[in-house]
Amino acid sequence: MKKKLLTAIFSLGSMGLFAQEEYLRDVSATQNLSKTIASLFQENQIATAFGRLTPYWPMPQNEMEAIEEKTIKYLNLLEQRFGKAIGFVKIKNETISDIAIRETYLVRYTNSAIRLKFTFYKNDRGWIVNAFNWDDSFTDEFE
Questions:
Q1: CB-based contacts of 101: which residues, under 8 Å, 6+ apart?
Q2: Cα–Cα distance, 129 to 10 (Å, whole number)
Q3: Domains defined along the chain, listed by start
Q4: DSSP-assigned states of every residue in 83-132
Q5: Per-residue pLDDT, 19
Q6: pTM of the full structure
Q7: How far apart are the C-alpha atoms of 128 and 133, rounded to whole Å?
Q8: How far is CA 130 from the centre of its chain?
Q9: Do 22 and 56 meet the contact criterion of CB atoms below 8 Å apart?
Q10: 101 backbone dihedrals φ, ψ, rounded to 5°
């Protein structure tokens, strides 16, 4: 009986190890998600942004939480250095056939900007977030 109970608890617990549970229907849904996340980054609503990404991103929950924590910490420091967020703009949309999309945004601050990169992948069930990252290296976009 104890083995069955432990197995059941472990099985339920392991279900939450990966955050991704949903799929985006089409390309417009991927575009809406990335635009929403860029807007939330501009508003420094990082927890909400990660909450919106989580259902579509097949990443272990503990890794997702660690990235979220670090992002909150660094963006608060960036705001002190770069000034107040003043807007965001989509600067690039790239595709690989009909299976992958990468969208790039800049969140503008008074003295500089950060780059947000979203990569979506289409599997047999729909679109998922394959990767998301941000940095302050937007000068690479001039190449």
A1: 27, 30, 93, 94, 95, 118, 119, 120, 127
A2: 27
A3: 21-142 (3.10.450.50)
A4: -SEEEEEEEEEEEETTTEEEEEEEEEESS-EEEEEEEEEEETTEEEEEEE
A5: 54
A6: 0.83
A7: 15
A8: 9
A9: yes
A10: -135, 140
